[in-house]
UniProtKB/TrEMBL annotation:
Domain annotation SIS: ranges: 45-184, 217-362
Record has Ribosomal protein as a keyword: no
Name of the gene encoding the protein in the UniProt record: glmS
GO cellular component term of the entry, any: cytosol
Full protein name: Glutamine--fructose-6-phosphate aminotransferase [isomerizing]
Alphabetically ordered keywords of this record: Aminotransferase, Cytoplasm, Glutamine amidotransferase, Repeat, Transferase
Superkingdom of origin: Bacteria
Subcellular location: Cytoplasm
Function: Catalyzes the first step in hexosamine metabolism, converting fructose-6P into glucosamine-6P using glutamine as a nitrogen source.
From-to range in the entire protein, with total length: 246 to 617 of 617
Active site: K367
Species of origin: Arsenicicoccus cauae
Length: 372
């Protein structure tokens, strides 16, 4: 097993470091020489895809958060209404689904029973089902109309990391492909976005190479009992995923919130010394979102929060209110989640390791949940 870990303390640590390759391999071979997306492997009649008027992404846990992250871009690029729902909730309500609905399931293992049941239900209702999956030939892709595989390689650690970023990349491919097929404003942009996406593995590598301070903070915080995570827009699902990682492997009470929701309740939790991670939106985000989150940081800092801010390089506006600034390379708005999740994965992994916990096999959890 030590050999399989390749000299790393845990599979999770190894898999975090494998993300540049996981994303690059997921993008590989999916464009032609002009940079146009080619997803023939899905084998779906393009006319069926052109007719789609609603997308529902179904998944559980980390895969659900990757769907939430991708929703912003998919809806923006395709102009198709996109919902993201926990598979076990979708299955047992009465969802509005017909043959113009595309149900995208997201699953690393391809064996999650809740997600499988949701896919079967969607098929019964007449939806077109596409499985984004990391395990070739698993049950969910076999039961779906089409599969788009992530090529993250086997993920051993119970806490999902490289599958998460690869899932976002695959969702982006699907979104851009739909935009390209359907024409319209974002069809022309698809190639430019693909070029940005192609640069992400390099940027992830840069982030991974600058994590010493994050590891130090994690070790220093190993007896912390509660950590909050705030994010807005594409940063919101990242806050949720950062909190899940900490709960799962470090057994620390962690909560993710939409930054705009603070004043509707969660701000009451802030007391002196409360650590809060803030996942900043890109500086050029629409609707002044960046400035809005800076003002959230001010509000919680004034109440004594210890603010750990993940933001783009060169973001001077946050500095006066940040106890720690964790920088990632500058990219476009939609690419940011692929970078800002990295410090949160490293933080959870290092903190759990510092606590002496079994990072790869956290208590009460299984890698693949094959019961409902
Ligand atoms: C992730 O860290 C979790 N262990 C868990 O939430 C997982 O993502 C979820 O069970 C879904 O698994 P899947 O991707 O294999 O369907």
């Amino acid at each position: 097993e030590a050999a399989e870990k390749g000299g790393h303390a845990s599979f999770m640590e190894k898999e975090i470091l494998e993300q540049p390759k996981a994303i690059a391999d997921t993008l590989l071979g999916r464009t032609d020489e002009d940079g146009k997306l080619v997803l023939d492997e899905m084998n779906i009649d393009p006319d069926r895809l052109r007719a789609i008027d609603k997308i529902i992404i179904v998944a559980c846990g980390t895969a659900f958060y990757s769907g939430l992250s991708a929703k912003y871009a998919i809806e923006h690029w395709t102009r198709i209404q996109t919902e993201v729902e926990l598979a076990h909730e979708f299955r047992y309500r009465d969802p509005v689904v017909d043959d113009r609905t595309l149900v995208v399931s997201m699953s690393q293992s391809g064996e999650t029973m809740d997600t499988l049941m949701a896919v079967k239900h969607a098929k019964e209702l007449g939806a077109l089902t596409v499985s984004i999956c990391n395990t070739y030939g698993a049950t969910i892709p076999r039961e779906s109309d089409a599969a788009l595989y992530t090529h993250a390689g086997p993920e051993i650690a119970v806490a999902s990391t490289k599958a998460f970023t690869a899932q976002i990349a695959a969702c982006y491919l699907l979104g851009l492909y739909l935009a390209q097929l359907r024409g319209g404003t974002y069809a022309e942009d698809a190639q430019a976005v693909m070029r940005e996406l192609a640069e992400i593995p390099q940027h992830v590598d840069t982030v991974l190479g600058s994590m010493d301070r994050v590891r130090e903070i994690a070790r220093f915080m190993s007896d912390t009992r509660s950590v909050l995570f705030l994010g807005r827009h594409v940063g919101y699902p990242i806050a949720l995923e950062g909190a899940l990682k900490l709960k799962e492997i470090a057994y620390i009470h962690a909560e993710g919130f939409a930054a705009g929701e603070l004043k509707h309740g969660p701000i009451a939790l802030i007391e002196p010394g409360q650590p809060v991670f803030i996942v900043m939106p890109a500086q050029d985000s629409p609707y002044d979102l960046h400035a809005k989150v800076v003002s959230n940081i001010q509000e919680i800092r004034a109440r004594g929060a210890r603010t750990l801010v993940i933001t783009e390089r060169g973001d001077e506006a946050v500095r006066p209110f940040a106890d720690e600034v964790i920088e990632v390379p500058r990219t476009s708005v939609m690419m940011m989640p692929l970078l800002s999740i990295i410090p949160l994965q490293v933080f959870a992994c290092e903190l759990a390791t510092a606590k002496g916990l079994d990072v790869d096999q956290p208590r009460n959890l299984a890698k693949s949940v094959t019961v409902e």
